[in-house]
Amino acid sequence: MKVAFALYHRALVTGVSLAAEMLSSAASLRPRQQQKSAPFEIKLVAPTLEPPKVPAGLKLQPDITFSDEQTFDTIILPPMWGNPMSALHQAPEIIPWLKKQYQQGAQLVATGTGVIWLAESGLLDNQVATTHWYYYDKFATRYPKIRLNRQASITAANGLFCTGSINSQSEMILYLIAENFGQKTANTIETHFGHEISKSTQQPFYQIGGQVQFDESIALAQDWMKRNLSTPITAQVIADHCGLPLRTFNRKFKDQVGESPHQYLQKIRMEVAQQLLRDFSMSVQDVAEQVGYKDAYHFSTRFQKQFSMTPIQYRRMVKAKIYNP
Hints:
Elements: E1 2-6, H1 14-28, H2 32-37, E2 41-46, E3 64-65, E4 74-77, H3 85-90, H4 94-103, E5 107-111, H5 115-121, E6 128-129, H6 136-142, E7 147-148, E8 154-157, E9 160-163, H7 166-181, H8 183-193, H9 216-227, H10 235-242, H11 246-257, H12 261-279, H13 284-290, H14 296-307, H15 311-323
Parallel strand pairs: 1-2, 1-4, 2-3, 4-5, 5-9, 6-7
Antiparallel strand pairs: 8-9
């Protein structure tokens, strides 16, 4: 897997560092033979080999320039601090580079104001996209051909992925890890990096797997599930709440979200359980009840199956990471 991070004026270092650490850590978990046969590589690409000016004052040394002929599997475009228009004028060569990489099969991931590069390239015309909430109105005015989704934190359209923030970018990185290195590896990375990733409160997401316009009824279903985790939930109950026949609801949910309502419900139950174990001194029984399990043993079994450790082990690991330098 070959990954490139594009560097440009005012790029946020956090849009590079955390994603790079998550991806490289996932690659290192592969069997040694696989690491040799399919090496993992990260490159920093910039207009010149001079480190661009970034807000943190740190120096990110580019490996290659946009004129280099290397091709990549995934290209990540970090967000920029402030008005992104000045970066457009300083690095016009990035536009043809992105187009060429996309035509050669690369998937493009842009975060926040970094989405402007995809917008300027024309690749997002007639596609769904999102960006940083502060830039919604200007973005919609400048790019009327793009279907801006103001509710979504992540959008996906034909290999073009847009995320609204660093947190949603991290969720996107977990998706890429699952796709390239397997779900078990993604679960391990989420477990070890989870306390550094704040789950976005901007809901619902335009879920990975959905290639059609965002569906309000499915958004309603996702939001309702998250607000009622501690109660008994069935697909029929959710379908009734959304005013849809059960078969229609199940089909639309799978099309939009990429998994069944039951699978999605179990996933968010485990995510909330992680947060409760990490941030609150609740007993395992109390955590279990908060996420819809009356039996702590059943909850612990599900948790261990998902994350390869018990709830108590997870809490100890996270607390050790937080309090020990």
